[in-house]
Amino acid sequence: MFAQLIEFVSNHYVLSGLFVILLVLLVVTELNRGGKSLSTRELTSLVNAGSGLVVDVRPSKEFSAGHIAGALNIPYDKLASRIVELEKHREKTLVVVDAMGQHAGTVCRELKKAGFNAARLTGGIATWRGENLPVVK
């Protein structure tokens, strides 16, 4: 099978090259659409410096089971109606946290459209817990 792939690429190098270019452009576009991704270390230093606010978009029940200290809970489905609560934090970077990263990109896009500086925690709260970082209840 690998030999067939090599033969196809060598016979259709223009088509293969275009495919690679389009794939790279797609990946870059998708990564930029949802805002910058932050590691747990970057999130911690941003919050400790006072220039970041954690916005947890998980449902209230999941939030109360354990969340990052100082996080503000605005459930994903209520973001549009509660975005005004974030106005007083406009000068900070809003770091969006969800369960595993499934909604964070969408929320970041919405926050950016509203004029906020937004980023997301890579892997959500699952990554935070996976690195044995503290959560409060």
Report on the architecture of this protein.
The protein is of the alpha/beta class. The protein is built from 7 helices and 5 strands, in the order ααβαβαβαβαβα. Strands 1-5-4-2-3 form a 5-stranded parallel beta sheet, sandwiched between helices. The termini are far apart.
What count of structural domains?
2
- pLDDT < 50 stretches: none
Quote the beta fraction.
5-15%
Number of helices: 7
* Major sheet characteristics: 5 strands, parallel
Separation, N- and C-terminal Cα atoms: 53 Å
List key phrases describing it.
single chain; 137 residues; alpha/beta; Oxidized Rhodanese, domain 1; 2 domains; five-stranded parallel sheet; 7 helices; 5 strands; 15% strand; elongated
What order do the helices and strands come in, and which of them pair?
Layout: H1 2-11, H2 13-33, E1 36-38, H3 40-48, E2 52-56, H4 60-65, E3 72-73, H5 79-82, E4 93-97, H6 104-113, E5 117-121, H7 124-130
Parallel strand pairs: 1-5, 2-3, 2-4, 4-5
Short description:
By secondary structure, this protein is an alpha/beta fold.
